[in-house]
Amino acid sequence: MANHKSAMKRDRQSKVRRLRNRMYKSKMKTAIRQVEEALVAGSEEEARNALAKAVPVIQKTAAKGTIHRKTASRKVSRLTRRVNRMQPLG
């Protein structure tokens, strides 16, 4: 345990931030899972709606600094590609 006043404050801040980051990551994973469930179900409209809701959640998680911006970009890109492949050609 920390002994200095500043170290104790740093410890408190770390705990709060860890819980906040965990909340953001959990929201992001839930949003991604909803897109994947719609893809498995084969519902194109549901998948598009879920993707439209997931993209801002992923970007917000990156904006908060919980995940790296390029990680967020990669996740959005891969999800979008998967949803677009579902669309019939022509």
Description of the molecule:
- By secondary structure, this protein is mainly alpha-helical.
- It has a single domain (5-86), classed as Up-down Bundle (Methane Monooxygenase Hydroxylase, Chain G, domain 1), CATH 1.20.58.
- 83% of the residues lie in helices and 0% in strands.
- It has helices at 5-41, 44-63, 69-86.
- α2 packs antiparallel against α3 (69-86).
- It is elongated.
- The mean pLDDT is 93.
User: How many angstroms does the end-to-end distance come to?
Assistant: 64 Å
- The percent of residues in helical segments reads over 70%
Q: Helix count? A: 3
* CATH architecture grouping: Up-down Bundle
Residue stretches low in confidence (pLDDT < 50, at least 5 long) are none
- How many beta-strand runs? 0
Which overall shape is indicated by the principal axes computed on the Cα atoms? elongated
